[in-house]
Write a structure and sequence with these properties.
Layout (H helix, E strand, L loop, with lengths): L2 H10 L5 H8 L3 H13 L20 E9 L7 H9 L4 E6 L6 E7 L2 H12 L5 E8 L5 E2 L2 E2 L14
Antiparallel strand pairs: 1-3, 1-4, 2-3, 5-6
Length: 161
C-alpha cells in the first residue's frame, strides 16, 4: 500500500469516500481510514478545500500575485519574514522562490482598494521588504489542476499564413 496513492487520490478529489479510495487502491476501507488519519496526524494532509471559479460569482473576489524582494540581516531570516506575512488572513499562499524576487504571495480581498491598502499598509512597511510588485489576476483558466470556465470550445477561426 502506498501512502502516495492515497495522497494523489485525495488531491484529485478530496470528496472521495474511503470506500471509493479502497476500490481504487485495492485496500480495505479500514486501511484507507487509518492511512488518512496517519497522514493528517503527521501533518502531510493539512486541510481540504474546494476549488472555486470566482469568475462565475457576481460578488467577485479580487486576487493578486505579489512579488516581494527582501534584505536579510543577521537576526532575520526568510522563515521569520514568512511567519509574519503568513499570519495575515488576506495572504492565501506564500512561497520562497528562486529568480528575480524572493517571495511570491497570493492575496485576496473584496476590492482593488482593499488589496492595495493591505499591501501598502501591512506588507510594504515590513522593514526587510525592499520592493513589492503587484499583479492583479484578471482571469483564471486553471486552479489546483482543475480547468475553469464554461468548458465550451474556442470558436475563433484558426489562422495560418
Amino acid at each position: 500500500m502506498s501512502e502516495r496513492e492515497v495522497l494523489e487520490l485525495l488531491r484529485e478529489n478530496a470528496r472521495y469516500s474511503t470506500a471509493d479510495i479502497a476500490r481504487m487502491t485495492d485496500l480495505k476501507e479500514r486501511e484507507v481510514e487509518a492511512t488518512i488519519e496517519e497522514l493528517e496526524a503527521a501533518g502531510l494532509v493539512r486541510g481540504y478545500q474546494a476549488v472555486v471559479d470566482w469568475d462565475k460569482l457576481e460578488d467577485e473576489r479580487v486576487r493578486a500575485e505579489v512579488e516581494l524582494n527582501v534584505t536579510l540581516d543577521r537576526e532575520t531570516g526568510y522563515d521569520d519574514i514568512a511567519e509574519r506575512l503568513a499570519r495575515f488572513p488576506e495572504v492565501k499562499a506564500l512561497r520562497l522562490i528562486s529568480g528575480d524576487y524572493d517571495f511570491d504571495m497570493e492575496v485576496e480581498g473584496d476590492s482593488i482598494r482593499e488589496v492595495s491598502q493591505f499591501i501598502s499598509e501591512k506588507v510594504a512597511p515590513v522593514p526587510e521588504i525592499t520592493q513589492t510588485v503587484t499583479h492583479y489576476v484578471m482571469t483564471s483558466y486553471k486552479e489546483n489542476g482543475i480547468e475553469l470556465g464554461d468548458g465550451e470550445s474556442d470558436d475563433r477561426l484558426s489562422f495560418s499564413p
